[in-house]
């Protein structure tokens, strides 16, 4: 019985010893790794050049060779991320950091070592770079500015309407593509803006529609549409009729001399609308043979007024 207890106790002590040994081994290994990573190492790292802020028409080529080899010295900790990613990015601004030639950008690597050092950070000491200069080839596509046409289906709530016109933050956009495609395009439509029961001001972003064109890019791809929506009411004024282009040798008597004109206007502008703000004319040269009436037309109205309607559709006359 006693011998069994001794054996159990011995097994227990052995297990405890193994656990302690494993713990000490793990701690020692961690310290070893930290010690190694604290040392300085020299290594060549690849910098993949990413060019930004170039013209929309430019199409970069040979992306696989747009790399710079940087020979650096750094702590092991700083080099660990390169075990998971074989390169680091280097951002160059096309307007400030490179020189534009006929069909390529030229980056003077030696001259811009400071830029590389800044983007690598203080953890890396830059020892040398290759190549001395980097050529980034590109091709240039055709482009032009074209106007925007808004497609809309807007239904306003009863008693509400648009005050003025819808406004765009841009009235034209740049299209880029092959010359044959670009030359065919005279305007760009928006996707249909559909709104119902509108009572409040309109503030919407609308995408531009290039689904009908192949290999065409557009900049920007959407526009902002805005408009003021207000309460509207109907008004009626009596407007004098004026006959124009009447021959000097022809005398006529026409009636009525004034006609009722109804209009739709926002409440804020209603009190400012007067009959004198409208002008209604009948053009004598529009007469057909044996026609005994003239057709009145509104030729002047206030900018704030919309949906004008002439109650009297014809002005009768007789020749004297």
From TrEMBL:
The chain crosses the membrane at residues 21-38. Coiled coil: none annotated. It holds the Pfam family YbbR. The keyword Repeat does not apply. InterPro entries: c-di-AMP_regulator, YbbR. The keyword Transmembrane helix applies. Signal peptide: none annotated. Keywords: Membrane, Transmembrane, Transmembrane helix. PANTHER family: CDAA REGULATORY PROTEIN CDAR. This is YbbR-like domain-containing protein. It comes from Winogradskyella damuponensis.
């Amino acid at each position: 019985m006693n011998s069994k207890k001794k054996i159990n106790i011995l097994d227990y002590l052995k297990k405890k010893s193994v656990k302690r040994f494993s713990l000490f081994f793990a701690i020692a290994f961690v310290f070893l790794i930290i010690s190694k990573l604290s040392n300085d190492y020299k290594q060549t790292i690849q910098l993949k050049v990413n060019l930004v802020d170039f013209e929309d028409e430019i199409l970069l080529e040979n992306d696989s060779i747009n790399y710079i080899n940087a020979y650096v010295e750094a702590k092991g900790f700083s080099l660990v991320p390169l075990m998971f990613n074989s390169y680091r990015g280097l951002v160059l601004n096309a307007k400030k950091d490179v020189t534009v030639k006929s069909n390529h950008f030229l980056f003077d690597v030696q001259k811009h070592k400071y830029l590389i050092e800044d983007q690598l950070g203080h953890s890396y000491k830059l020892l040398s770079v290759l190549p001395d200069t980097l050529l980034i080839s590109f091709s240039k596509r055709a482009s032009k500015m074209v106007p925007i046409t808004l497609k809309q289906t807007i239904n306003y709530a009863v008693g509400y309407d648009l005050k003025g016109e819808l406004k765009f933050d841009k009235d034209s956009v740049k299209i880029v593509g092959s010359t044959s495609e670009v030359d065919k395009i005279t305007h760009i439509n928006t996707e249909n803006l559909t709104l119902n029961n509108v009572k409040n001001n309109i503030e919407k972003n609308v995408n531009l529609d290039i689904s009908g064109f192949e290999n065409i890019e557009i900049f920007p791809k959407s526009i902002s549409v805005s408009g003021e929506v207000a309460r509207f009411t109907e008004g009626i004024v009596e407007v004098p009729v004026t006959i124009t282009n009447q021959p000097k040798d022809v005398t006529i008597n026409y009636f009525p001399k004034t006609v009722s004109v109804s209009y739709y206007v926002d409440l804020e502008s209603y009190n400012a609308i007067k009959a004198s703000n409208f002008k209604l004319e009948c053009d004598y040269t529009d007469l057909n043979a044996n026609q005994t009436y003239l057709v009145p037309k509104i030729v002047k109205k206030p900018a704030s007024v919309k949906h004008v309607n002439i109650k009297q559709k014809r002005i009768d006359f007789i020749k004297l």
